[in-house]
Amino acid sequence: MALSAAFYSCSQPSLILSCRTREPNFSQTACFHKTLTVRGSSTLDYSKLSVDDKSSAPLKTNSWQWKFKENSISIYYEEHEKDREGPSKNILMIPTISDVSTVEEWRSVANTLVQQVGSVNWRATIVDWPGLGYSDRPKMDYTAAVMEKFLVDFINAPDGPIRGSENDLVVFGGGHAATLTIRAVKRGAVKPKAIAAVAPTWAGPLPIVFGRDSNMETRYGLLRGTLRAPAVGWMMYNMLVSNEKSIESQYKSHVYSNPDNVTPGIIESRYALTKRKGARYAPAAFLTGLLDAVQSREEFLELFADMGNKKIPVVVVSTEGSPKRSKAEMEALREAKGVTKFVEVPGALLPQEEYPAMVAEELYQFLREIFESKD
């Protein structure tokens, strides 16, 4: 988000480092692709949660050690659960990938869902990606394959926080997280019972604007190298990304749909993330397309189509205020094979954070339609 905001889409395919784009790579759209009709009396009260309700305390916070090559990376995660009798199922919530990616974007949704009373009790785990959020950020080569391996290892680890949930796991992913999850499912590496794709994306901020020809790929490589460099990398990162004015500007212009919802607390929290040790490595990869799960819209649609073949229900949650390029990618999913349900909520690029009650409502109805209707 903020990192992509440091670049501007000019009429010629060149990278201008002194100005900003108005559109990073996130997207949303909506409507029902297939009408499902389980609307019970336990719907949520939208008035109970607002954008400022970010203080929903998790039941437990902890870290898990991810062993990757020569690294042992501390992965931050949170658990949200209501102590009550009866069967329970697990939801893994994965944040949108960006330089300010954080578990915080899912907290209110998690807290709302675990409070619901129904035939199924929900337990939510929110995890930060390696190199992002509150997880460790070692200097290594971050790629889509690396992030996908992490996701697979986290879900399947016998010592992991969601061990034993392979028969009842649901995955909620924002942005690139949704696409990486679906790619892992397509390969058969993970087998969730259902998936929620909130603003699913497939192209990093620069590739979606400037394309992927050989000339641009060379420039992306140069930019990546500069951002990773010991001294000049921090200078560039601080100038273009790691400052409160830049973060606030982007949140007000397109990350949130209502500028009044962008509070000082949100900006301070995101700014602090950009100051963590190693903060620029993973975002540099995301910005330049190294974390893209696919290389084209056709491949993007094929991933979703395969979920239909595997009979895995998928809901796509979109927003009314998505940027033009991002929304175009979401529109491609409107009637796509494999998309069980397609809905729209208010918001821009982070609806789960700006309008958590509305997102929680749609996701809870999806869960009830998939699971409780069978009971």
Automatic annotation (TrEMBL):
GO CC, alphabetical: chloroplast
SUPFAM superfamilies: alpha/beta-Hydrolases (SSF53474)
Gene3D superfamilies, A to Z: alpha/beta hydrolase
Domain of life, source organism: Eukaryota
PANTHER family attached to this UniProt entry: ALPHA/BETA-HYDROLASES SUPERFAMILY PROTEIN, ALPHA_BETA-HYDROLASES SUPERFAMILY PROTEIN
Protein name in the entry: AB hydrolase-1 domain-containing protein
Lineage: Eukaryota, Viridiplantae, Streptophyta, Embryophyta, Tracheophyta
